[in-house]
Structure prediction request, 289 residues.
Amino acid sequence: MDIENNIDQNPQKKSALRVVVHSFFVVPFIIAIFAVLIFLVTRIMTAEPNTAQDYLEDVKIGGATKRWQGAFELSKILSNPKMVPKDNRFVTEMITTFEYAINDRDIRIRQFLAIAMGATGDKRYVETIIKALDQNDNEIIMACAFALGNLKDNRAVVHLLGLLDSPDPQVRLQSVIALGKINDPNSTLPLEKMLADIEPNVRWDAAIALAKQKNSSGRRIILDLLDRKYLNSFSNIDKVEQVQAMMVAINVAPLIQDSDLKQSLLELKERDSNLKIREAARIALLNFE
Prediction:
């Protein structure tokens, strides 16, 4: 009888144990998991994205990594006109932070801050960036030239022209690109001289810059940029870069109104393997007389 009673009681004990475990461990654990998930979802839905001011604070008071990353994020966020603060306080803080960073060993901070200032399109940054061109670091100079090109202010022209004599081809290139964006007639003669530069990229962008001024001095170079055989001779240029170079040349070709350029566009429209190139050539031809 005792054995039978023990057998009868064991299922009851096991059942009671399951109830205890389920009530005091499983259910609270599941509730906790759901609570955490609800918290995370709510946090994600209500969290506000960082603003330009937030990233500027990272640059000002963050650690070594945080500072350059903050400057990098600023260069991205300020390329969106809707995210650019217009108040004098922000502009002053940007300028002060940029100038203070001259003592920082990580040049990326000033590089990205210069690019960020240029991305705003705000002319209040022009003088500050021009002053930074006097630095000895070519990486900073290139970033500043790039920024000045985006700001498109004629005050920068004379300073950019001074960079055309730089022994560094990348500095010359960024200056030529910036001058092309500003499109000031005072840069015409210096740009014509750059058509003979030893660096192909400099010659190409000088021709593009002149075409924007409706100057045909770089006509031969633009014809080359429309020729895939010519571009194929440069092993360091991949297919994507080839298309980019051709697209730029196609877009400026109508500004010169040259019959040879028109013929090249006709051939591209009919025969090129890239549909994007063919369509761009078709549109460009509509702008020829």
About this structure: Residues 1-7 have pLDDT under 50 and may be disordered. Residues 2-46 form the longest helix (45 residues). Residues 214-289 form one domain. The radius of gyration is 31 Å.
